[in-house]
Amino acid sequence: MVAYIRRMAVVKNRWLTAELFNDGVALCQMIPGATAMQTTAYVGLKARGAIGAGVSYIGFGLPAFLLMTIFAALYTSTSTLPVVNSAFNGLQAIIVAIIANATLSFGKTTLKDWQTLLVAGLAAIMFSLHVNPVIVILSAAVCGLLLFKTKQSHSHPADSSGQNASTITPLLLILSASFIGFVVLFFCNRALFELAVLLFRIDMFAFGGGFASIPLMLHEIVTVRHWMDSQTFMHAI
């Protein structure tokens, strides 16, 4: 996804330079959440300001949102059919292969020395002991502070201070609208408010993109709250 966004933004439309795009991808990989969606928002921010970031984020996520809503509705009405159950039972094996492939891909680019191997090993042990995933993530951060020396970042001078100033107002409007949305949910529908806050918290700790959110969601939605069983969760993946 990120490679395709790069071709669109840098090569085809020339909204960003290659260097500026690479800096943005590095930033998106450092912060929690889905890297591809954040990269899209970064491109929109650099091309059209804060409003552009919001529009890009919504435009990128909307197709998947609509498809998942349709598929979830179809699954709810057909999950009891034998043919649907058989198909999903076969797909579960593919899910394991997809996650294993992602693990290998991340491992090749990340596990390059004994420090990273140690952190990954300790995290794997903690997960096997059913430790809360948030505690595992925070423990990994502490290990990072102890084991890794901070590298000096060669920051580039700001090239558009006027643009930065012009993004403050729309950014504050977006933040205010989000806050108001949470307040409205709190007073109108506590169940939806709890759901929104839970997913907000999960995304805040999803370092590493979408796959990193899976153990967090499994823990909170299946193990703690029992909103669905593990088989239905696997079907959703």
Structure commentary:
There is one protein chain. With 237 residues, this protein is an all-alpha fold. The protein has helices spanning 2-12, 18-30, 35-78, 82-110, 114-128, 133-147, 161-166, 168-188, 190-204, 210-224, 230-236. Helix 2 crosses helix 3 (35-78) and helix 5 runs antiparallel to helix 6 (133-147). The longest helix has 44 residues, at 35-78.
What would you say about this model in short?
This protein has 237 residues and is an all-alpha fold. Helix content is 81%, strand content 0%. It has 11 helices and no strands.
Alpha-beta content class: mainly alpha
User: Percent of residues in beta strands?
Assistant: under 5%
Please provide the count of β strands.
0
Tell me, rounded to a whole number, the average pLDDT.
Answer: 85
- Spans with pLDDT under 50 lasting ≥5 residues? none
> Largest sheet, if any?
none
Overall helicity: over 70%
Categorize the overall geometry: globular
Overall radius of gyration: 20 Å
Topology pattern, helix = H, strand = E: HHHHHHHHHHH
Q: Number of helix segments?
A: 11
Q: What is the CA–CA distance across the termini?
A: 18 Å
